[in-house]
Amino acid sequence: MIASRLLTSSVTALAVVGAVGWAYAQTAPEPAAEAQTPMTTPADAAVTPAPDAATSGAMMNEPMERADRN
Amino acid sequence: MDGHDTPPDASRRGMAEDVRRGLLAGLAILALVIPPVQQVLVQVAAPVSAGRLPDFGHTPASVATRQVVDWVAGTGNHSGQPFVVIDKKAARLYVFDAAARLRDATPVLLGSAPGDDSVPGIGSRPIAEVRPEERTTPAGRFVGMAGRNHTGEDVVWVDHGAAVSMHRVRTTQPTERRLERLASPSVADKRISYGCINVPADFYDAHIRPMFSGRHAVIYVLPEHKSLQQVFGFQARPITHAMPS
Predict the structure, then answer these.
(1) ipTM associated with this complex
(2) Among candidates A20, A55, A15, A31, which has minimal Cα distance to B212?
(3) Which domains does chain B have, with CATH numbers?
(4) Pair B169, B179: CB distance under 8 Å
(5) Contacts A17 to B, Cβ<8 Å
(6) Which of A42, A65, B137, B138 would bridge A46 by S-S if both were Cys, CB 3.0 to 4.6 A apart?
(7) Residues 6+ apart with CB under 8 A from B126
(8) How close A66 gets to chain B, by Cα (Å)?
(9) What tens digit of pLDDT does each residue of B61-102 get?
(10) What is the CA radius of gyration of chain A?
(11) What are the chain A neighbours of B230 within 8 Å (beta carbons)?
Protein backbone atom coordinates (compact mmCIF):
# COMPACT_ATOMS: atom_id res chain seq x y z
CA MET A 1 0.00 0.00 0.00
CA ILE A 2 2.75 2.40 0.99
CA ALA A 3 4.78 1.38 -2.06
CA SER A 4 1.78 2.01 -4.28
CA ARG A 5 1.26 5.50 -2.82
CA LEU A 6 4.96 6.27 -3.16
CA LEU A 7 4.88 5.12 -6.76
CA THR A 8 1.86 7.32 -7.52
CA SER A 9 3.56 10.39 -6.04
CA SER A 10 6.84 9.67 -7.82
CA VAL A 11 5.20 9.18 -11.20
CA THR A 12 3.24 12.40 -10.74
CA ALA A 13 6.36 14.32 -9.75
CA LEU A 14 8.28 12.90 -12.69
CA ALA A 15 5.48 13.82 -15.08
CA VAL A 16 5.39 17.40 -13.78
CA VAL A 17 9.16 17.78 -14.00
CA GLY A 18 9.25 16.25 -17.45
CA ALA A 19 6.40 18.30 -18.87
CA VAL A 20 7.52 21.63 -17.45
CA GLY A 21 11.15 20.94 -18.22
CA TRP A 22 10.35 20.10 -21.82
CA ALA A 23 8.20 23.20 -22.20
CA TYR A 24 10.96 25.32 -20.67
CA ALA A 25 13.55 23.87 -23.00
CA GLN A 26 11.37 24.75 -25.98
CA THR A 27 10.77 28.34 -24.94
CA ALA A 28 13.98 29.42 -23.18
CA PRO A 29 16.36 31.27 -25.54
CA GLU A 30 19.71 29.69 -26.25
CA PRO A 31 22.22 32.22 -24.92
CA ALA A 32 25.00 31.40 -27.36
CA ALA A 33 22.77 31.43 -30.41
CA GLU A 34 21.06 34.63 -29.30
CA ALA A 35 24.34 36.36 -28.73
CA GLN A 36 25.54 35.49 -32.18
CA THR A 37 22.50 36.86 -33.92
CA PRO A 38 24.00 40.30 -34.59
CA MET A 39 27.00 38.62 -36.15
CA THR A 40 25.06 37.11 -38.98
CA THR A 41 25.59 38.81 -42.27
CA PRO A 42 22.90 39.25 -44.87
CA ALA A 43 23.02 37.09 -47.94
CA ASP A 44 24.07 39.90 -50.22
CA ALA A 45 26.95 41.03 -48.04
CA ALA A 46 30.44 40.29 -49.23
CA VAL A 47 32.12 38.03 -46.73
CA THR A 48 35.31 36.11 -47.19
CA PRO A 49 34.65 32.41 -46.68
CA ALA A 50 37.46 32.05 -44.20
CA PRO A 51 37.98 30.61 -40.74
CA ASP A 52 37.02 32.49 -37.62
CA ALA A 53 39.16 35.51 -36.82
CA ALA A 54 40.37 33.88 -33.63
CA THR A 55 42.04 31.03 -35.46
CA SER A 56 45.44 30.41 -33.96
CA GLY A 57 48.61 30.61 -35.99
CA ALA A 58 49.16 26.89 -35.78
CA MET A 59 45.86 26.22 -37.50
CA MET A 60 46.32 28.78 -40.26
CA ASN A 61 46.90 27.81 -43.81
CA GLU A 62 48.41 30.58 -45.89
CA PRO A 63 46.23 31.18 -48.92
CA MET A 64 47.48 30.29 -52.36
CA GLU A 65 49.74 32.82 -54.03
CA ARG A 66 47.97 34.68 -56.77
CA ALA A 67 47.90 38.00 -58.57
CA ASP A 68 46.07 40.73 -56.73
CA ARG A 69 44.26 43.78 -58.00
CA ASN A 70 47.19 46.12 -57.48
CA MET B 1 -16.24 -6.13 0.69
CA ASP B 2 -14.39 -7.51 3.70
CA GLY B 3 -13.07 -5.52 6.66
CA HIS B 4 -9.59 -5.12 5.19
CA ASP B 5 -10.64 -3.44 1.95
CA THR B 6 -10.47 0.32 1.70
CA PRO B 7 -13.72 1.92 0.70
CA PRO B 8 -13.68 3.35 -2.90
CA ASP B 9 -14.13 6.96 -1.77
CA ALA B 10 -11.29 6.69 0.71
CA SER B 11 -9.13 5.04 -1.95
CA ARG B 12 -9.82 7.84 -4.42
CA ARG B 13 -9.09 10.45 -1.75
CA GLY B 14 -5.85 8.68 -0.94
CA MET B 15 -4.81 8.62 -4.57
CA ALA B 16 -5.70 12.28 -4.98
CA GLU B 17 -3.56 13.04 -1.97
CA ASP B 18 -0.66 11.06 -3.49
CA VAL B 19 -1.00 12.93 -6.76
CA ARG B 20 -1.08 16.25 -4.92
CA ARG B 21 2.10 15.34 -3.07
CA GLY B 22 3.67 14.33 -6.38
CA LEU B 23 2.71 17.66 -7.92
CA LEU B 24 4.18 19.58 -5.02
CA ALA B 25 7.36 17.53 -5.15
CA GLY B 26 7.63 18.11 -8.91
CA LEU B 27 7.14 21.85 -8.53
CA ALA B 28 9.71 21.95 -5.75
CA ILE B 29 12.23 20.16 -7.97
CA LEU B 30 11.52 22.57 -10.84
CA ALA B 31 11.94 25.57 -8.56
CA LEU B 32 15.38 24.31 -7.67
CA VAL B 33 16.47 23.29 -11.16
CA ILE B 34 15.16 26.01 -13.49
CA PRO B 35 17.01 29.33 -13.13
CA PRO B 36 14.99 32.47 -12.53
CA VAL B 37 13.80 34.25 -15.69
CA GLN B 38 15.78 37.39 -14.90
CA GLN B 39 18.99 35.39 -14.68
CA VAL B 40 18.38 33.91 -18.12
CA LEU B 41 17.75 37.35 -19.59
CA VAL B 42 20.95 38.68 -18.09
CA GLN B 43 22.87 35.77 -19.57
CA VAL B 44 21.37 36.39 -22.99
CA ALA B 45 22.08 40.11 -22.87
CA ALA B 46 25.57 39.73 -21.46
CA PRO B 47 27.58 39.49 -24.70
CA VAL B 48 26.08 42.75 -25.92
CA SER B 49 26.08 44.72 -22.68
CA ALA B 50 29.61 43.58 -21.91
CA GLY B 51 30.88 45.43 -24.95
CA ARG B 52 32.98 48.51 -24.52
CA LEU B 53 32.54 51.91 -26.02
CA PRO B 54 35.05 52.36 -28.80
CA ASP B 55 37.79 54.86 -28.16
CA PHE B 56 38.82 57.07 -31.08
CA GLY B 57 40.89 59.40 -28.94
CA HIS B 58 41.02 62.74 -30.74
CA THR B 59 41.05 61.23 -34.21
CA PRO B 60 38.18 62.40 -36.38
CA ALA B 61 36.07 59.71 -37.99
CA SER B 62 32.81 59.61 -39.91
CA VAL B 63 29.51 58.77 -38.26
CA ALA B 64 29.34 55.53 -40.22
CA THR B 65 32.77 54.51 -38.99
CA ARG B 66 31.75 55.18 -35.42
CA GLN B 67 28.51 53.28 -35.86
CA VAL B 68 30.32 50.23 -37.19
CA VAL B 69 32.94 50.32 -34.44
CA ASP B 70 30.17 50.76 -31.85
CA TRP B 71 28.48 47.69 -33.23
CA VAL B 72 31.70 45.69 -33.37
CA ALA B 73 32.65 46.62 -29.82
CA GLY B 74 29.13 46.07 -28.51
CA THR B 75 28.64 42.66 -30.05
CA GLY B 76 32.17 41.32 -29.97
CA ASN B 77 31.92 40.76 -33.70
CA HIS B 78 35.71 40.96 -33.97
CA SER B 79 36.08 37.77 -31.90
CA GLY B 80 38.23 39.56 -29.36
CA GLN B 81 40.94 40.28 -31.92
CA PRO B 82 42.39 43.56 -33.20
CA PHE B 83 40.50 44.72 -36.26
CA VAL B 84 40.64 47.12 -39.21
CA VAL B 85 37.97 49.50 -40.46
CA ILE B 86 38.20 51.07 -43.90
CA ASP B 87 35.99 54.04 -44.61
CA LYS B 88 35.82 54.13 -48.39
CA LYS B 89 34.02 57.48 -48.52
CA ALA B 90 36.84 59.10 -46.59
CA ALA B 91 39.56 56.82 -48.02
CA ARG B 92 40.86 56.20 -44.52
CA LEU B 93 41.93 53.08 -42.70
CA TYR B 94 41.65 52.67 -38.91
CA VAL B 95 43.44 50.05 -36.82
CA PHE B 96 41.86 49.06 -33.50
CA ASP B 97 43.14 46.85 -30.74
CA ALA B 98 41.09 44.03 -29.26
CA ALA B 99 39.44 46.45 -26.81
CA ALA B 100 38.23 48.68 -29.68
CA ARG B 101 40.74 51.41 -28.91
CA LEU B 102 42.05 53.18 -31.99
CA ARG B 103 45.76 52.53 -32.45
CA ASP B 104 46.31 54.59 -35.57
CA ALA B 105 44.74 55.75 -38.81
CA THR B 106 45.98 56.56 -42.28
CA PRO B 107 44.80 57.58 -45.72
CA VAL B 108 44.67 54.71 -48.22
CA LEU B 109 44.28 54.27 -51.96
CA LEU B 110 41.26 52.30 -53.14
CA GLY B 111 39.67 50.92 -56.29
CA SER B 112 39.07 53.60 -58.89
CA ALA B 113 35.48 52.57 -59.60
CA PRO B 114 32.70 53.38 -57.13
CA GLY B 115 30.72 50.37 -55.94
CA ASP B 116 30.43 47.89 -53.11
CA ASP B 117 30.63 44.58 -54.94
CA SER B 118 33.16 42.67 -56.99
CA VAL B 119 32.20 41.42 -60.42
CA PRO B 120 31.83 37.62 -60.32
CA GLY B 121 34.96 35.88 -61.51
CA ILE B 122 37.11 38.99 -61.43
CA GLY B 123 39.70 37.29 -59.26
CA SER B 124 40.67 34.85 -61.97
CA ARG B 125 41.00 37.43 -64.75
CA PRO B 126 44.31 39.01 -65.74
CA ILE B 127 44.49 42.53 -64.41
CA ALA B 128 44.72 43.93 -67.93
CA GLU B 129 41.24 42.55 -68.60
CA VAL B 130 39.64 44.32 -65.65
CA ARG B 131 37.54 47.10 -67.12
CA PRO B 132 37.55 50.56 -65.49
CA GLU B 133 34.03 50.18 -64.12
CA GLU B 134 34.99 46.88 -62.50
CA ARG B 135 37.82 48.33 -60.42
CA THR B 136 35.87 48.37 -57.18
CA THR B 137 36.95 47.76 -53.61
CA PRO B 138 34.19 45.55 -52.24
CA ALA B 139 32.44 46.42 -48.98
CA GLY B 140 31.80 43.87 -46.28
CA ARG B 141 33.15 41.97 -43.32
CA PHE B 142 36.24 40.06 -44.34
CA VAL B 143 38.52 37.79 -42.38
CA GLY B 144 41.91 39.03 -43.45
CA MET B 145 44.93 36.79 -43.55
CA ALA B 146 48.58 37.25 -44.38
CA GLY B 147 49.86 35.73 -47.60
CA ARG B 148 51.77 36.44 -50.76
CA ASN B 149 50.82 37.54 -54.22
CA HIS B 150 52.17 36.05 -57.43
CA THR B 151 55.35 38.14 -57.22
CA GLY B 152 56.13 36.85 -53.73
CA GLU B 153 55.30 40.17 -52.07
CA ASP B 154 53.79 39.78 -48.61
CA VAL B 155 50.23 41.11 -48.55
CA VAL B 156 47.13 40.78 -46.42
CA TRP B 157 44.34 39.09 -48.34
CA VAL B 158 41.05 40.86 -47.84
CA ASP B 159 39.02 38.86 -50.34
CA HIS B 160 41.28 36.21 -51.78
CA GLY B 161 38.61 34.95 -54.18
CA ALA B 162 38.19 38.39 -55.70
CA ALA B 163 41.97 39.04 -55.59
CA VAL B 164 41.59 42.00 -53.27
CA SER B 165 44.53 42.52 -50.95
CA MET B 166 45.93 45.17 -48.67
CA HIS B 167 49.57 45.97 -49.36
CA ARG B 168 52.24 48.64 -49.24
CA VAL B 169 51.59 51.39 -51.75
CA ARG B 170 52.98 50.44 -55.15
CA THR B 171 54.87 52.93 -57.23
CA THR B 172 55.58 50.75 -60.24
CA GLN B 173 53.56 53.01 -62.54
CA PRO B 174 54.99 56.52 -62.04
CA THR B 175 52.20 58.07 -64.07
CA GLU B 176 49.72 57.02 -61.39
CA ARG B 177 51.49 59.23 -58.81
CA ARG B 178 50.36 57.02 -55.96
CA LEU B 179 52.56 58.61 -53.31
CA GLU B 180 51.32 62.07 -54.25
CA ARG B 181 47.76 60.82 -54.13
CA LEU B 182 48.27 59.46 -50.62
CA ALA B 183 49.58 62.84 -49.52
CA SER B 184 46.75 64.73 -51.18
CA PRO B 185 43.86 65.97 -49.04
CA SER B 186 41.44 65.07 -51.83
CA VAL B 187 39.41 61.88 -51.42
CA ALA B 188 38.94 61.67 -55.18
CA ASP B 189 42.71 61.40 -55.59
CA LYS B 190 42.66 58.20 -53.53
CA ARG B 191 40.72 56.22 -56.11
CA ILE B 192 43.36 54.76 -58.37
CA SER B 193 43.83 51.02 -57.82
CA TYR B 194 42.14 48.05 -59.48
CA GLY B 195 40.47 47.20 -56.16
CA CYS B 196 43.35 46.63 -53.77
CA ILE B 197 43.90 48.76 -50.70
CA ASN B 198 47.23 50.58 -50.86
CA VAL B 199 48.62 51.51 -47.47
CA PRO B 200 51.61 53.80 -46.77
CA ALA B 201 54.61 51.50 -46.42
CA ASP B 202 55.63 52.66 -42.96
CA PHE B 203 52.09 52.26 -41.67
CA TYR B 204 51.87 48.80 -43.20
CA ASP B 205 55.09 47.71 -41.52
CA ALA B 206 54.18 49.29 -38.19
CA HIS B 207 50.59 48.09 -37.88
CA ILE B 208 49.20 45.89 -40.63
CA ARG B 209 51.94 43.32 -40.99
CA PRO B 210 52.32 42.68 -37.23
CA MET B 211 48.56 42.57 -36.78
CA PHE B 212 48.11 39.72 -39.23
CA SER B 213 51.28 37.88 -38.33
CA GLY B 214 50.26 34.39 -37.29
CA ARG B 215 46.58 35.14 -36.98
CA HIS B 216 43.49 36.23 -38.81
CA ALA B 217 41.73 39.49 -38.05
CA VAL B 218 38.52 41.03 -39.27
CA ILE B 219 38.55 43.84 -41.82
CA TYR B 220 35.39 45.91 -42.10
CA VAL B 221 35.14 47.77 -45.40
CA LEU B 222 32.37 50.33 -45.20
CA PRO B 223 30.07 50.70 -48.18
CA GLU B 224 29.77 53.79 -50.29
CA HIS B 225 26.43 52.99 -51.93
CA LYS B 226 24.77 50.33 -49.81
CA SER B 227 23.57 50.86 -46.24
CA LEU B 228 25.34 49.51 -43.19
CA GLN B 229 22.31 47.31 -42.63
CA GLN B 230 22.66 45.78 -46.07
CA VAL B 231 26.35 45.12 -45.71
CA PHE B 232 26.76 44.22 -42.05
CA GLY B 233 23.24 43.21 -41.09
CA PHE B 234 22.74 45.58 -38.17
CA GLN B 235 20.56 48.60 -37.65
CA ALA B 236 22.86 51.55 -37.05
CA ARG B 237 22.21 53.41 -33.80
CA PRO B 238 22.65 57.16 -33.42
CA ILE B 239 26.03 57.99 -31.98
CA THR B 240 25.53 59.16 -28.41
CA HIS B 241 29.03 59.32 -26.99
CA ALA B 242 31.37 62.24 -27.44
CA MET B 243 32.90 62.94 -30.80
CA PRO B 244 35.91 65.16 -31.15
CA SER B 245 35.27 68.26 -33.18
Answers:
(1) 0.72
(2) A55
(3) 44-232 (2.40.440.10)
(4) yes
(5) 26, 29-30, 33
(6) B138
(7) A67
(8) 4
(9) 999 999 999 999 999 999 999 999 999 999 999 999 999 999
(10) 26
(11) 42, 44-45
